[in-house]
């Protein structure tokens, strides 16, 4: 987590960095800071706890001029989110400043060593060891900043994306990465931009270099960009062209990114299957994994690793792969999998699902599986992300940038890719007959319009939200592939409205959660038509018998649940394998409206970050 931005060029650095930090706030918003070197060689470092807007207000009263600078928005790991712990951190002599995203695992031993050499630490952060270490090496070894960074990083254990600004060379910034992402933008007239992702860069240039692990980049007004490995080997920068559009990262008239992203789903689902599905000709194909289709078709089992919402998508994937392709699937929390000494071998296929493609645990789980010889595949949204680069192959979700911290369109795009994958493997294996295959792909093509139809009912969602906005707890129930939808609904509500919510398999409710039910408890039930419909109706009756309030998601035309539910939302009928793509939408909308009615910060919920690059 944490977002970093740096600029060197002919323009004023402060406004460029500030704007960039606002774009990266999804990565953390506990504190923000910017250091700028002005024409008189003064290093002005402004730091504020809280959001970037607070830093903006504070810095407006001070000199922030200068054409080179570095900035940071923090998600606190070590130390409280106060002004002192905010980045940039400055060397004891005030000559250098540094920003960091990641965690220095051996910071304790480095700190002790540096303290014994007379360094005084001001903050509680792990990051501060880096600036003192670089400073120490620079002075003792009489080397330049870039070389000092290189030597320092050889004794650092952990994850980092850093940028260092030094007064002794105002024409240069030195950056490095390992595990945390870093992109270099190559601007006009010798300008360079460095950032955790491309969003702060896109309006200035579409030429970027995604840095690899253990690389150091030196951007210099006179010498341009040079890239070295931390073993000191010079490399040729691989320049890529970004296809990201500026409109995609703006709110486009919506009050919040989350609402915009919920409403983008008809388009994002369509973009996801565009070119991968042809109903008239009757085929599905995922170009990115075509070389691995035979292996997938022969697989004895598939392991899916993910975190958060992506883990819920993996659970939907399990139903799809098992039902359609008849391949056993194990769904694992990446953070558990990596520390469990899992049994994996060359026959295994591990699929990582990640919106950002940067989640530290998912990345580590994949590396572990790769080291044991498994084939590793990725389903990512962010193009060029770390996961998409370390996997043998993969399929992008093409949902476009997702900025709201609570994931919405990325989830439905992940489920769409998983559906396409399951369908193509099922066909390859020959265990999906023509009639069923055609029915599913025909229905899949209709999903965007059906999502749009649900989105038209926003008033109904608002009405229901108004009734339950003050609830203290909520229960979400579903069976079969609606169970992950229930989990996702509960996660959305707790993430952004801070109402405690639990997702449960509907039948499991009687083994505990039923004790919580009283007339105050809203119970959201996914009761769409499908094999467990009658069973879910019985579960609803059990809730009603205890005076719980039922908010049911039902299939259009249903009369049975409609008659007993306190509230209902109708969604269009579809193939049961595709139902999660529709049933999720009302739950996203209700979470959104409840959070807005409670006055919560929908796009930046407290304590959360979108891209979790620490374990
Ligand atoms: C964070 C985000 C979630 C996301 C999860 C996994 O917790 O707030 O929205 O689902 O990380 O992220 P990934 O990028 O790997 O999908």
Explain this structure to me?
With 615 residues, the chain is of the alpha/beta class. The chain folds into 3 domains: 3-248, Glutamine Phosphoribosylpyrophosphate, subunit 1, domain 1 (4-Layer Sandwich), CATH 3.60.20.10; 251-455, Rossmann fold (3-Layer(aba) Sandwich), CATH 3.40.50.10490; 457-605, Rossmann fold. It has an 8-stranded antiparallel β-sheet, covered by helices on one side. The protein has a 7-stranded antiparallel β-sheet with strand order 5-6-7-8-12-13-14, with helices on one face. It has a 5-stranded parallel β-sheet with strand order 19-18-20-21-22, with helices on both faces. α16 (482-497) links the parallel β23 and β24. α3 packs across α4 (128-141), α7 packs parallel to α13 (409-429) and α14 (434-455) runs parallel beside α19 (579-597). It is globular, with a radius of gyration of 25 Å. The protein starts with a strand and ends in an 18-residue tail after the last helix. The mean pLDDT is 95. The structure holds 6-O-phosphono-alpha-D-glucopyranose (G6P). 6-O-phosphono-alpha-D-glucopyranose is lined by residues 307-310, 354-356, 359, 362, 405, 407, 608, 610-612.
